[in-house]
Amino acid sequence: MVGAVVLAAVIGSCSRAGSSSSAGSALTNPELDPGTPLSQPAPDFTLTDQFGRQVSLHSFRGKIVLLAFNDPQCTTVCPLTTTAMVQAKTLLGASGSQVELLGVAANPTATGVKWVRAYSEAHQMMHQWRFLTGSLAQLKRVWRAYGIEAQLVKGQVDHTPALYVIDQRGRLSRLYMTQMAFSSVNQLGQELAQSAAALLPGHPRVRTSASHAEVQFIDPGTAVTLPRAGGGTVHLGPSNSPHLFLFFGTWAKEVTNLAAALEALNGYAAAAAGGRLPPLIAVDEASVEPSPSALPHFLKSLPRPLSFPVAIDQSGRVADGYRVQDQPWLELISASGQFLWYRDVSVLGWPGRVSLIRYIRRALARAPKAYLAGGGAPQIAGSSVALAALHAQAGELLGSGSLLEARIRALRGYPIVVNAWASWCGPCRSEFSLFASASRRYG
Fold this sequence. Notes:
Number of strands: 17
Radius of gyration: 23 Å
């Protein structure tokens, strides 16, 4: 798990404002950090890789190093980051041999070699990078040197999602804060490749012409047709009834019994076939699968075929549009494309069939009738003066702390939800639709 933890120490007061990348248009995409230029020695360290071998940073002098801090049990940002790292090296062609991919474990509760090995195996990266770990004391020294915060927060690991580009002389060249955006993985890979190319002799051409412009998400209110695993297509978007969605990647089997969970969902699909429960559609996140064959091989390994369709989201635009923030992720969507319920399975675990049915029926019972009938969201009406003033201010910036304090005073007598957020924070933006839905639902 990765949260918005403050970056400190070695970075000092570096600002993103005014930073430029090899693709200045990246600044127009809020899901893609264009990187912060740095110029200082990269602190050296010696840790142990996934093969149990000692590895020192200084041993890679003469090469470009992409150094990321990853939780080996992560199911959020880390898989997106490591996918982009592998893509970056591929995009450099033959020049990729002059780039080394390194990861340093950023989980205070999973420091053993078995964890970095399991992550590398699940993502088919055993021979594509070095994923380093050590004792907690050793890791903490490296974290401090690179300004990384890694800690356990309410049972979940929270760490700074930082990725450094280190030049051939062992100096920090650029810092990226990687974000939770499936649709921007390819763009990040291109950005990292361009940063490396700028440091390599002859500045080799990056083998891609992908745009760095903002990616348009595909939300539940938009009709889209996706390829179906095994052949055919799957249609998503507004329909005649609510639907239950499962978003997953096959690599999630490292941290959960994915095969058993999908087998259990066959039971839900059978119950839904009677028409009294929303149909189930699974969506595989092909944008972060380790290879095109990962999904077919996984499905063939199951004891019996799935009785529900598995759509393939090759661009990540569907996952982002459906506000997916982790893997696996369950989500109930109304006929008109409204969010009714979700469950972060990685955090809360798989619900049993009886519990899942109960959650869904409860969410459907709470949903406005207009949602279930395929209509639009009901208008907020009948609000008190204080709440009506708040609704009228939607989408506006208050501008100062004193105005916020005044607004809170005006709402005395009402429960208030205050959400701390940042404009560059992907999960923060994804929460907006959930807050808006709750506001309309509860008035």
